[in-house]
What we know:
The protein is an alpha+beta fold. It has a single domain (10-138), classed as Thiol Ester Dehydrase, Chain A. Helix content is 20%, strand content 41%. The longest helix has 18 residues, at 33-50.
Amino acid sequence: MMTARGWKNGWYVVPMEATFRDIDFFGHVNNAVYFSYFEWARTQLWFELTGQRAPGDISFIVARAECDFRQPIVMEPFEVRVRIDEMRATSMDFVYEIRKDDGRQLAATGRTVVVLYDWDKRSKMPIPEELRARVKAFQR
């Protein structure tokens, strides 16, 4: 049974399912695809936090991305858990867990560092206090 999207134990949980196009020659999800899963979960969390829904409302750029692979994913349902970890002046860390088997098996962990970005000014910007407060409230 797949988990519903939403908050669970301080994580924003996004149910997903590997599709045929995600699978490589070896029969499992290709390593590069995990970053797409992180991206989708990060976007859904951002929309949840900000109440915005358009691609232009994503006011950050990715500065660094990493993934540690634990178990392969095949064509099966899984969930991506995401939350915001450290917040600095203009950047913050999104951390991820990809879990399968109804959340019992950890398939991968990851982290992205994002920089808040003003697209009009083409420069980084400070994290607003309102966003910091929303993150803390949601992730309790």
